[in-house]
């Protein structure tokens, strides 16, 4: 899409395009990761429906980076070419709020098939 066309879109249209792009990219993931990724993206996009303009800009930027990362990790035919995902650097983890750390931990449990485990304050402090 050319920059002129993108500039003419409303914020809601840009969000919808990004969301649909992410779901389309998830089709190239293994089934269990696709399901997890689709649920997570759906939840995050819904959770940010009423966020402030500054939060919305950060949200869109981070999800666009995610889309670029996933695109680079999928082959031309849309199938994973090796490792999917990447390591979080310690600076990024340090900047997370406590509820974000919990959410990240729960996402890790779900990705490892350990859903149902609980997180405690001790788990959060041990991970730092």
Automatic annotation (TrEMBL):
Any single biological process term in GO: mitochondrial respiratory chain complex II assembly
Keyword Mitochondrion tagged: yes
PANTHER family: DC11 ACN9 HOMOLOG (PTHR13137), SUCCINATE DEHYDROGENASE ASSEMBLY FACTOR 3, MITOCHONDRIAL (PTHR13137:SF6)
Predominant location: mitochondrion
InterPro entries xref list: SDHAF3/Sdh7 (IPR008381)
Protein name: Succinate dehydrogenase assembly factor 3
Keyword terms, alphabetized: Chaperone, Mitochondrion, Transit peptide
Protein family per UniProt: Belongs to the complex I LYR family. SDHAF3 subfamily.
Known function: Plays an essential role in the assembly of succinate dehydrogenase (SDH), an enzyme complex (also referred to as respiratory complex II) that is a component of both the tricarboxylic acid (TCA) cycle and the mitochondrial electron transport chain, and which couples the oxidation of succinate to fumarate with the reduction of ubiquinone (coenzyme Q) to ubiquinol. Promotes maturation of the iron-sulfur protein subunit of the SDH catalytic dimer, protecting it from the deleterious effects of oxidants. May act together with SDHAF1.
Gene Ontology CC entries for this record: mitochondrial intermembrane space; mitochondrial matrix
Quaternary data: Interacts with the iron-sulfur protein subunit within the SDH catalytic dimer.
tRNA-binding among keywords: no
Cell location: Mitochondrion matrix
